[in-house]
Design goal:
Number of strands: 32
Shape: elongated
Largest sheet: 5 strands, mixed, barrel
Length: about 650
């Protein structure tokens, strides 16, 4: 006898075989199934003989008064067709009861060959297979949630139990013969669940323990690539996976591990590191060959010209491949002597073949510094010849700063036009008062510092110094002139006499009475008449008086005597007006009234020196470092260059 539930759990041609079997056994208990008794009864498995084949039916003699019929399609295409005289086992599904008499010769028998085979197969499996047993079967098809495996009967292999790492398509296993562990036999729910993964894990656990004992650093091992990630590949060494990192695949540059290995490929790797506690193994592929960096200094001596290919372009430079596994960095500052390069891609592109010069080698860090500009002559080496001092050059205003303007006299060659060299008479607070960006101007070369790559230019030097000729002759002592109040200070008033030329009207010379606040007497922009008291060409200063405009010669002489006596009392031969009182300029509260003529090197100084009193400025010019005159030197040359990528 057999359990009716087990019969219902068997698979027919499709998932609906249980329903068909249940319909066939309707009204009968499981105990009614007979396994070969002498009496013919429903649900009995008997042996019969094929009498004939009639269209879609096969007639079988089972020892009853009438033949039984089996549908022809119960023979699969891959099995031998039925033959007359052949003995087969069948399940009696139904006996037609004519007029209530089972023994009537007109009764027909319905038989099933497939159900008889399924029942016998299931019972055989139930007798031989138990949970935790290892079974072997062929994957027959893919169903929802997993695979069906034929081990005599179809059993269910969940997708999560197919392999340690779930395959991309479990359908690839169809047709393969595999081994699995029986996880569960559920007679109540009529199914058997198996796992291939559990079997693999059990085998790997045993192999892993043994493998960890056998592995040694530097050992070569064969393995199979099981998975590929962005950072490397996992290689099965036969019980344990090791990581082959992308940086250990090749001495050369690779963008993705798939360029070197593929899934299920067998490769030989070297053991680099073993962590017994965490059971992690680091593997290497490139370590099987000698590093090209071992003899890099012999192949690429410093100063040598070599050819290479651009393999990567970054914001700070370009990487050049010299040979497989050897790359060098051309920093952006080493690309051109004169060109202002915003990004290395302005000059080079990936796959460009270029010539470079080896600048330095760090074997420990595996870095090579290369230069492109060193393959060409440095144009600064001929600057002194092309632009000697006193020569006149034309250029374009490229950049304005607080202390001057950078003039591009040729591509990459700048000169600095300092504010102190823009006008003989006018106090320039910012170069934008006189020039603008993009403007083409003519200047005189004042000096060339070839070693520091600096050129000092002058604009005022194109004309004669008016303080040496025109001003002393134009403004005489006692002369009455008209001017405009440009600035009022606590010690006096600055009066503009002509473009850029100012004189100082001291507070004591504003009126006959004592003046506390000069702005009570005059206003900025007001035109007034003043008398010239002093013209000092050496100091480039003009002293003025408003109260003496109407004075007669006798009053002037008397005032002069008083001033001389006061000066003598103070131990000086000049009026008691301090240098601080003689500071000023158009619209500015600092700096000398009229700047002294500067020598060429002094044209490139810090703004702080420019703003100092004339006595202090000379010292500041000598001590202050000159301003950089090229775009390349405007950048921070001391900034550390980025290290080469791993």
């Amino acid at each position: 006898m057999v359990n009716r539930n087990l019969i219902r759990s068997l698979d027919l041609r499709d998932e609906d075989w249980e329903n068909a079997l249940s319909v066939a056994l309707e009204g009968h208990s499981a105990e009614e199934i007979d396994w070969g008794g002498s009496d013919i009864a429903v649900n009995q498995i008997v042996e019969g003989q094929i009498l004939r084949i009639d269209g879609d039916f096969v007639l079988v003699d089972v020892g009853y008064k009438s033949e039984g019929a089996i549908y022809r399609n119960e023979w699969d295409e891959n099995e031998p067709p039925p033959e007359v005289g052949q003995s087969i086992k069948v399940l009696i599904e139904d006996v037609e009861d004519v007029f209530g008499r089972v023994d009537d010769s007109r009764g027909m028998i319905s038989l099933s060959k497939r159900k008889a085979e399924k029942i016998e197969a299931w019972m055989k499996v139930m007798e031989t297979v138990h949970e935790d047993d290892v079974v072997t079967g062929q994957v027959t098809r893919k169903i929802k949630g997993g695979l069906l495996v034929d081990i005599g009967v179809n059993v269910f292999l969940p997708a999560s139990q197919v392999d340690i790492r779930r395959p991309a398509d479990i359908g690839d296993f169809i047709g393969r013969t595999i081994q699995c562990i029986v996880l569960k036999i559920d007679e109540a729910r009529r199914n058997i669940v198996v796992s291939r993964r559990a079997l693999i894990e059990t085998e790997r656990a045993e192999k892993k323990a043994q493998l960890l004992q056998d592995l040694e650093l530097g050992q070569l091992r064969k393995g199979v690539v099981k998975n590929i990630a962005e950072f490397g590949a996992f290689v099965d060494l036969g019980g344990i996976d090791g990581l082959l990192h992308i940086t250990d695949m090749s001495w050369g540059r690779i963008n993705h591990p798939s360029e070197m290995v593929s899934i299920d490929e067998e490769i030989e790797v070297q053991i680099l590191h073993i962590d017994h506690e965490k059971e992690k193994i680091a593997l290497g592929l490139k370590q099987k060959t000698a590093s090209p960096w071992e003899e890099v200094k012999d192949h690429y001596p410093v100063g040598a010209k070599v050819r290479g290919t651009i393999v990567n372009v970054m914001s700070y430079g370009a990487f050049v491949k010299l040979e497989e596994g050897i790359e060098g960095l051309v920093h952006i500052s080493e690309m051109s002597w004169t060109k202002r390069i915003g990004h290395p891609s302005d000059l080079v592109q990936i796959d460009d073949e270029i010539e470079v010069v080896v600048l330095g080698i760090n074997k420990d860090k595996q870095e090579i510094s290369l230069g492109i500009k060193q393959t060409q002559d440095n144009p600064w080496d001929q600057v002194s010849e092309r632009y000697p001092p006193e020569s006149i050059v034309k250029g374009t205003v490229r950049k304005l700063t607080n202390y001057g303007a950078f003039i591009e006299i040729e591509e990459g060659i700048d000169g600095l036009l300092h504010v102190s060299d823009m006008s003989w008479t006018r106090k320039i607070s910012h170069p934008s008062e006189l020039v603008e960006k993009g403007q083409e101007i003519e200047c005189r070369v004042l000096s060339v510092d070839q070693s520091r790559r600096r050129i000092a230019l002058g604009l005022k030097q194109l004309t004669e110094d008016p303080w040496a000729s025109d001003i002393p002759g134009k403004y005489e002592l006692g002369q009455i002139v008209k001017g405009t109040v440009t600035k009022i200070t606590n010690f006096g008033v600055f009066v503009g006499l002509e473009d850029g030329l100012e004189g100082l009207l001291h507070i004591s010379e504003l009126a006959d009475h004592k003046v506390e606040n000069p702005d009570e007497i005059v206003k900025v922009g007001e035109e007034i008449e003043v008398k010239v008291l002093r013209v000092d060409s050496d100091e480039r200063k003009i002293g003025l008086s408003r109260k003496r405009v109407e004075w007669a010669e006798e009053a002037e002489a008397e005032a002069a005597k008083e001033e001389a006596a006061a000066a003598a009392a103070n131990g000086s031969t000049t009026p008691t007006i301090s240098p601080e009182d003689l500071k000023g300029g158009i619209g500015d509260s600092s700096g000398p009234l009229i700047q002294p003529m500067q020598s060429a090197p002094a044209a490139m100084v810090e703004e702080a020196a420019e703003e100092a009193p004339s006595e202090e400025k000379a010292q500041a010019i000598e001590e202050a470092p000159a301003e950089e005159a090229t775009a390349e030197e405007e950048q921070s040359e001391e900034a550390e260059k980025p290290s080469e990528e791993a």
